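step=predict obj=AB hydrolase-1 domain-containing protein n=365
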Amino acid sequence: MMAGLTLGFFPVIGGKRMECGGGKLMHVRASSGFPSFLPKEVHQIKDPFARTLAQRIQRLPVQIGFSGSCIMSSCVKPIRQQETNPVVLLHCFDSSCLEWRRTYPLLEDAGLEVWAVDVLGWGFSDLAVVILFPILAGLEVLPPCDPATKRYHLYQLWKSHIKRPMILVGPSLGGAVAIDFAVNYPEAVKKLVLINPSVYAEGTGLIAKLPRKMAYAMVLLLKSMPLRLYAKFLMFGGIPFTLCLDWTNVGRLHCLLPWWEDATVDYILSGGYNVVAQIKQVKQTALVVWGENDNIVSNKLAMKLFCELGPNSRMQQIPDCGHLPHVEKPEAVAKLIVEFARGDICETEPNPLACGVDDVCVVDA
């Protein structure tokens, strides 16, 4: 466990440090083709899509302090940059860019410039910094992982590397991350895609008031294989056990990094995302993608969001699909994102005062 310290936006005195500037990236490869910074358990993963995308993960320098120090931030970069608006893929709560393993290649094959980025505190970024100041010599600290710092980190990554207004895609809690970002940095976001978004939870609730030791105990449970396996069965009922086990290993791979527990506890105790008041402030055109069999987020909440986003919103329903359409139905999700990016989706504007099921476009899976 790291020391209970955070860097905030203050300079680091000595320690492990990389100067921002020059756009240098870190992706040292092992002989297997996987980046050397990934946990060794990546070799046990069998999913060919996960293995392929994992081999493309890089770390880019992103500055969030005033000292010039950087967080080496993990993402999958596009092979080439286009003149059109880039598509930037976020992920769910406590997940990683590997969540997009089945949809990312389809978007890329369609000719889009696609980035899959890890939200600060999750994924495979390097959060550890070693303090060399005599009194604190040898202590490892990490940046705060509250929503404000996650937002600022994403902005700095966009400002340093992406640099153009983007189509920001957020599934589940990533929908809250996307809304929070779009409202605070509207110049960085051209359009929003919200996939089965979890945006009406008021943060982490009562667990934000837990004593720190109890929060660590809860996080250990969150990391546990039985709980993760159960969650996968809940989301993907009916898939074979061996596949469910492999997808569980993909989903918890980032949890094996040494700072994951500290970062997750910091997020939980910060109160988490509460974007309810921000929804009606969204000015960008938004597409809500809804898996009709979602047993995590109520369909009624999806419709409520569709209405509250106003006249610039669209909704697309994917039948026979649960909470993670980009994993279950990658072809359908990729088609929607491509068409939305090109302006081909639902040419007629829905009436936000009468947004019943007649206003929802149904997509063939």
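step=describe
Confidence is low (pLDDT under 50) at residues 1-18, 130-134, 347-354.
step=end
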